[in-house]
Amino acid sequence: MADQLARYGEVRRGGIGVEFQDLTPELADAFGLPSTSGALIARVVPGAPAERAGLRSGDVVVQANGHPVSNADDLRKRIGLTPIGQTLKLSVVRDGRTRNVSVTVEDPVWLRQPGGAMHPDLDGALFQDVYENGESVAVEIVEVQKGSPAWEAGLRAGDVILAVNRTRVRSTAEMKSRIRRSRSAVLQLQRDGRLYVLRLE
């Protein structure tokens, strides 16, 4: 696990601030689309790049940078593989008409999870999923407030959480679920290429 994640602390996935879902035959028919290929925008985060670019809930993304979008997962991966700061060109179907929209991929601060919602000892830390090839593979601490419970527990920005109670975690959702299953938790984390163990009481 340590070898596989030796560089993950420097990997960040950008985002545009949308939630996608797959197209069902019924939805495709309702939108006047010839097939279920594409990704339906279910929600746009206020103030995120997608909203600023003019994307709306109900838009159907059919191409990304000239490549056909097969489903929601395909589009998530394409966004995840686009470096932060670069522009993603999307072809979107709205009201039966196709339009092109350019949106800049940004550091997805809206996805950061407060540690206090997981465990009191994690209060003051912000967590974010780490991605490799468009897939979530671990959890990184992106910020720790000095003097907070998380700081006093020994956590620092840049730490990568690999496992909770000896079980691999690949996302903040998995981490939260594992911690909530027991009163105490043991975190396995990586810092500067070394492995550490931290117990939460």
UniProtKB/TrEMBL annotation:
One of its GO terms (molecular function) is serine-type peptidase activity. Residues 5-96, 124-186 form the PDZ domain. SUPFAM superfamilies: PDZ domain-like. It comes from the Bacteria. PROSITE patterns: PDZ. Pfam families: PDZ_2, PDZ_6. The keyword Hydrolase applies. Keywords: Hydrolase, Protease, Serine protease. The keyword Transmembrane helix does not apply. Belongs to the peptidase S1C family. This is PDZ domain-containing protein. It comes from Thermohahella caldifontis. The lineage of its organism: Bacteria, Pseudomonadati, Pseudomonadota, Gammaproteobacteria, Oceanospirillales.
